[in-house]
Structure of Porphobilinogen deaminase:
Amino acid sequence: MKKDTIIIGTRSSKLALWQAEYVKSRLEEKYPALTVELKLMTTKGDKILDAPLAKIGGKGLFTKELETDMLTGGIDLAVHSLKDMPTEVPDGLVISAITKRFDPGDAVVSPEYQRFDALPLGAKVGTSSLRRKAQLLHVRPDLNICDLRGNVNTRLQKLADEDFDAIILAVAGLKRLGFGERITDVLPKSIVLPAVGQGALAIETRADDAEIRALIDFLNDDETVRCATAERAFLGRVEGGCQVPVGVYATPAEAGQLQVEAVIASLDGSKLYRDKITGQAADAESLGRQLADMLLAKGGLEIMHELGLLLDRNQ
Ligand SMILES: NCc1[nH]cc(CCC(=O)O)c1CC(=O)O
């Protein structure tokens, strides 16, 4: 091995730091002679805290600054939550590893009512995700869903400060930060499908950095990679990003198969199209694309048009 020090770029939120430290410790455990340093960085998504995420828009809100630094050699790799990664990685960069998915669920934190089912009529529910909002409104149009921005710690603080009856956060993020005991319910997948890649980490490197890529290859979890491939193919096809209420969840099925379930909904949840497909795991990418086409044909395309999103269907 030529390199004796590698530099991991990470955002500086507590969750991002946990994730970078996790990769650091797995590398150090595997390569005792290697020194791994963390370089803390700030992204546009960290700076703009007062606007709803969907309004800021722009791809790579939480990844771009890290990617620019990696392309110029400032860092060797970047650790991201897979769900924060746009489906298209910039030229010269590549996702070289996807770690084992931890828990893809969406959690309810509601000290007063505990369970989602128990929320009273018109309850004030906090989330900044269009995906969660639309799917929740579909089954509970009475809910008063309000924007809740900030990192996980800030959001938990706002639960009390801003009088929410419940807030919704990824199970994975809460558990990583040691807040697992704050979870009072987990939304069933029959109501809310997770975001693409929720619960898994992506490690991004330069495409031509063969040494680093070989070094981190052991972090890949084959099963998660297959699921993520299907989920990201779905998202790439519907051009979802964080601006469209889209959920997708792939799971291994028997005999080397993969089941992929997905949803596209209108912002207010009044229209919701959901379907699933099963096929060979080796065809993960095409399964994701087929499912996207099924949902677009059912009415998803109309929703995209209503949202004013351009779709290049010839890609
Ligand atoms: N959007 C921010 C974000 N990115 C990743 C996670 C959680 C960890 C994960 O899903 O892997 C979170 C917080 C949340 O959605 O509650």
In short: The first strand starts at residue 5 and ends at 11. The chain has ten helices and 13 strands. The chain has three domains: 5-100+200-220, 106-186, 229-306. The mean pLDDT is 92.
